[in-house]
Design a protein that fits this description.
heterodimer; A: about 375 residues; mainly beta; Porin; 16-stranded antiparallel β-barrel; about 5% helix; about 55% strand; B: about 300 residues; alpha/beta; Rossmann fold; 8 strands
């Protein structure tokens, strides 16, 4: 070993490096990543005839096609615009071609007093699963309540204001206003501000191995001529939904690398008041409930297994709509899902999932093998 | 009454003027360094422990809440925290600690980085394009980082600038004295043949001049294949090593596996402050690292 370089050399190194590395890596270049995903799906029933009893589906909220198919490829580009603003774009390239803007928003970084303002198109913070992109899901599909009430997830053009309290325990209050063009809203009513969301989120550590997050939100929207059931039904009226969710994570000594457990669940109360037209016509005032509970356990590095339970409660829609797709005919939609997945690194994952799906009166056995790989920038370890 | 209010106002102002600087350290070694330089003027919080892999941290709500109130963030940088720090910075949206602000301090900016990859292909594993970030395993790296951090503390809290400069000068003096004790011990470990888990020890190896005979995890972030492990056994037959080294946060299984097959002693090194009971502070970190390695060279 040569003698220890002291002052002179260190100062030189210091000078050289403060000149050579102007800022953190990626501070100037946008982070770009492309997510590739595809699957093989096998169903006992015809997936084109998939229904949730009493809850007509939004477009694109149905099942994946049977057999081999490509999922949407996701292109994510994000960076700090400057020292005050951050921006992110997520585009979904459909298998048949065409780019859809999933998210495109800017966010402030330096408002005082813990405030953050976000503008553009983004997923609402109304629940834990809502703002997660498909490649971040722990299962191939969203919980039934998300599929039924929100068309999988609610994202729209809007504004969000968040306030993070200066407390030791995480406490955040937020308000969102959206255009009201996306399901379960439609028609951009109320002068193009058809949806309002209020949310409160709390979180913290129980000890070094356990942490939690929980939230409550109120979604309030006015829909005009909203289409569902493959365009056969039109709804105009008010949609109001309460969502209560909780997540608990465990990792021995806070190190999830080898083993960890994530338990999450939510309860949603969805109320639709207005009138339906199209293939069925009549007034409606229905309060539906949905809940899911899931646990995902990583039993050794790279290997995880999960169990998810889903259930919905759908009331009778009233005499005018009896016998229509809004009539559950006494059925209680429910589903049990099991999954195993293997991640060779943080950037690749292969998953096998089985659903015993009783969304409709005819039970279905659904098998899916899915791959998800991410090329480019390192993804974020969101909680 | 008005005198009471005046007194109260004065008291509040005084309290405010003497409020602690809130420091958010990403890793324990930087919290320990800040403590050496700023003593009790700092309100310190550490995002990770020595038992956690600093690559695999989640942006937990508690970390967002703590970063929200920080005046200074001290992290390693060089993409070590790439998976979670950007999320924390964005969610906490604290204007004082955003990149480029005086409250944002990256230790790797003040040190020459090793292992800078010539090409970045993920087939080679989860590489750090800026170079190996684990600079805290070479005690010499603390000299430039301490100097820069001392200046930064003085800049952020000018009222106590003198205290920080004094604290820094005192630390540098004690650190050089410690280096003078450690260097002869390090020289005796020169050429020590070891098996490591992954490239976390590049800087320690650079200081000691040890020889890494084999790595159990040749590609960062990618678990080793059985073929690779067989190759490691083969290598060790030709080129015997003195022991197997792993960091306190790393799983014991791979080194236990190799220990059972080769009988090589497996040694846990603290890697950072708090990694072993003896590594209570930065001085203890290197005293203990050397002591544990010396047990290998004596066998």
């Amino acid at each position: 070993m040569p003698a220890i370089p002291l002052r002179g050399k260190l100062t030189l190194v210091l000078l050289l490096f403060s000149a050579a590395l102007p800022a953190a890596q990626n501070a100037f270049n946008p982070e770009i990543s492309l997510i590739l995903s595809g699957q093989y799906a096998h169903y006992r029933q015809d997936p084109d005839r998939y229904r949730i009893a009493g809850l007509p589906l939004a477009d694109e909220a149905g099942l994946l096609p049977a057999g081999l198919s490509l999922a949407e490829s996701e292109l994510v580009i994000s960076a700090n615009a400057d020292d005050r603003f951050y921006g992110r774009f997520t585009g979904a390239i459909a298998p048949e071609g065409g780019l859809a803007v999933e998210e495109a928003f800017v966010q402030t970084l330096d408002l005082p007093a813990g405030l953050t303002l976000q503008a553009g198109r983004f997923y609402s913070e109304l629940g834990y699963q809502n703002s997660r992109h498909a490649h971040q899901w722990d299962f191939v599909d969203q919980p039934l309540a998300y599929r039924a009430f929100l068309g999988n997830q609610y994202g729209d053009d809007g504004l969000q204001l968040r306030w993070l309290a200066p407390t030791e325990t995480f406490l955040e209050l937020g308000a969102e206003v959206f255009r009201g063009a996306a399901y379960p809203s439609a028609g951009a009513s109320r002068g193009g501000a058809g949806t309002r969301v209020l949310f409160v989120t709390g979180g913290g550590d129980i000890d070094v191995s356990q942490s939690w997050k929980a939230g409550l939100s109120l979604f309030d929207s006015r829909a005009e001529q909203r289409l569902s059931d493959g365009g056969n039904l039109r709804f105009s009226g008010d949609v109001r939904q309460w969502t209560l969710y909780g997540v608990w994570k465990w990792a021995p000594r806070g190190n999830p690398y080898e083993r960890n457990l994530i338990v999450q669940g939510a309860f949603m109360q969805n109320r639709e008041r207005g009138s339906y037209g199209g293939s069925a016509t009549g007034p409606i005032d229905a309060r539906r409930q949905g809940a899911y509970l899931q646990a995902v356990y990583q039993f050794r590095h790279g290997w995880r297994t999960g169990l998810r339970l889903d259930a919905l409660r759908v009331p009778d829609p009233g005499s005018a709509l009896r016998g229509s797709p809004l009539d559950p005919a006494g059925h209680t939609p429910r589903r049990v899902s099991l999954m195993v997945d293997y991640a060779h690194s943080e950037f690749s994952r292969i998953r096998l999932q089985y659903n015993r799906d009783e969304s409709g009166p005819r039970p279905d056995d659904q098998w899916t093998v899915q791959y998800t790989m991410s090329l480019g920038a390192h993804g974020a370890h969101r909680f | 009454m008005s005198r009471f209010l005046l007194l109260l106002a004065t008291l509040l102002l005084t309290l405010n003027a003497h409020a602690d600087l809130r420091v958010f350290a990403c890793e324990p070694e930087w919290a320990a360094l800040a403590r050496e330089l700023g003593h009790d003027h700092l309100h310190l919080t550490t995002a990770t422990t020595a038992q956690q892999d600093p690559h695999h941290i989640q942006a937990r709500p508690s970390l967002i809440a703590r970063l929200r109130r920080a005046d200074l963030l001290i992290c390693t940088g060089a993409d070590l925290e790439i998976g979670w720090l950007p999320v924390l910075l964005r969610r906490a949206a604290n204007p004082h600690v955003q990149p480029g602000k005086p409250g944002y301090f990256e230790a790797t900016r003040f040190v020459t980085l090793l292992d800078v990859p010539a090409s970045v292909d993920r087939a080679l594993g989860d590489l750090h394009p800026a170079g190996n970030p684990h600079i805290q395993t070479d005690p010499r790296n603390f000299l430039p980082v301490a100097r820069a951090l001392g200046e930064r503390l003085a800049q952020l809290d000018p009222a106590r600038a003198e205290d920080y400069r004094k604290g820094t000068a005192d630390f540098l003096r004690r650190w050089r004295a410690a280096l003078a004790r450690w260097n002869p011990r390090a020289r005796k470990l020169r050429g020590l043949k070891v098996v490591t888990h992954h490239k976390g020890w590049t800087y320690l190896g650079h200081w000691l001049g040890w020889q890494v005979v084999a790595r159990l995890e040749p590609k960062p972030g990618v678990p080793p294949s059985t073929a690779h492990l067989a190759e490691v056994l083969e290598t060790l037959k030709r080129q015997p090593a003195a022991g197997i080294i792993r960091a306190a946060y790393q799983p014991a299984r791979p080194s236990r596996w190799l220990h059972e097959r080769t009988g090589l002693p497996a040694v846990v090194l603290p890697f950072t402050v708090g990694g072993t009971p003896q590594a209570r502070d930065l001085f203890g970190l290197f005293d203990d690292t050397l002591s544990r390695l010396e047990t290998l060279s004596h066998e």
